[in-house]
C-alpha cells in the first residue's frame, strides 16, 4: 500500500509494501501574483541528505534511515530511504511525549557524536553551503564553502525539531532521526535547540539569525565564481546506491 502527500516543496510517498519512503522535488509553481517559485537548492538538498545519511551511519551510532537510491523520475530528483516503522514525536500520545527524555537523548546520544565529527571545510560533505532554513529563508544568497587551517567546523543536523524524531509508537523511544537536508559542517551554534518545543511554538531570534547570516556573508559567490549549479543526470548516477534496494513503484 502506498500513500502520497504533497507540500509546497516536496512530494512524499510512503510504500509499506516495498518498505520505502520517497521524497521528490516538485516542478516550479506560480504564486498568487504569477511569480514562478522554485524551492531554493531543491535538488542539492536531496543530494546532501543522501550523502549525509550514508556518512552518519558509517561514522556514528545515531539511528537514521538507510539511504537506498537517488534518481531522476520524470525529470525530477527523488530520494528513497528505508521506511521507519514509527511515529514522529509530535504524534505520540501525551503520556509518551516526554520532552525531558528527548532533551537527554539529544544531549547525550546525538550532539556529542555530531560534534566529534569535524572538518576544516564549511558546508556539506560535497562542498556546498546549505545552511539551516532560518538562515536562508526568505532571502537566500549564494554562499560558498571556505577552508581553515584547523578543523573548526562541526557537523550539525540543521533542524533538530520534534517532528524529525521517529519514535516507537508503544514506548516513545527514538528509532531514527530524519530530514537531514540542511546538515553540514558549521560552527556548533548553528544548531538551534528546536527539540525543546513543538513546531508551532518554534520562534527564531532575529538577532541570532542575523549573526549567522553575517558569518556566512563573508564567503559569497560572485557571478564568475558560481559553484551552485544543478546536478546533471550523470552526476546523480555517479553517487553510491544500494543495488539491493527495492524498485520504486
From TrEMBL:
<dbReference type="InterPro" id="IPR051678">
    <property type="entry name" value="AGP_Transferase"/>
</dbReference>
<dbReference type="InterPro" id="IPR011009">
    <property type="entry name" value="Kinase-like_dom_sf"/>
</dbReference>
<dbReference type="InterPro" id="IPR002575">
    <property type="entry name" value="Aminoglycoside_PTrfase"/>
</dbReference>
<protein>
    <recommendedName>
        <fullName>Aminoglycoside phosphotransferase domain-containing protein</fullName>
    </recommendedName>
</protein>
<feature type="domain" description="Aminoglycoside phosphotransferase">
    <location>
        <begin position="151"/>
        <end position="192"/>
    </location>
</feature>
<dbReference type="Pfam" id="PF01636">
    <property type="entry name" value="APH"/>
</dbReference>
